[in-house]
Amino acid sequence: MRRHLILLGALAIAGLLLGASFALADDAPSAQEPPPMPGPGYCKENPGKCEAARARHEAWCKENPQKCEQMKAQRTQRREFCQQNPQQCEQQRAQMQQHRAEMKAKCAADPAKCEEMKQQMRARWQEHMGAGGTGGAAGQPAP
Q1: What is the pLDDT of residues 91-114, one digit of tens each?
Q2: Cβ atoms within 10 A of the Cβ of 80, count?
């Protein structure tokens, strides 16, 4: 049980740190990460763009099945964690939203430094995800 709690804590911290990298990354998906799946509100407002985003995500998963499954497992673990710890999950979500707002303000104040930080975070993400994967969605504009 204790090992399970430590694992969940480590995953939560990793999620927060990786979330910061997503906040700093530019909008174009790379070969190392899947294109984001659009949420239900976005799909109601933009049905054509939503379908295109879903198609890009599915294509990425076909080209990177292991990473796709790994990310699905991580999402499932996070969902379970949030069901078991709603207050802690909401607190972490609020902290991440605050961090994103701070980073957005910093980027608006110094775009050159922001771009440098984005490049550093991309390099860390690629190192974390490994050199494999040749996602076909790279270079396509975001919806």
Answers
A1: 999 999 999 999 999 899 999 998
A2: 11
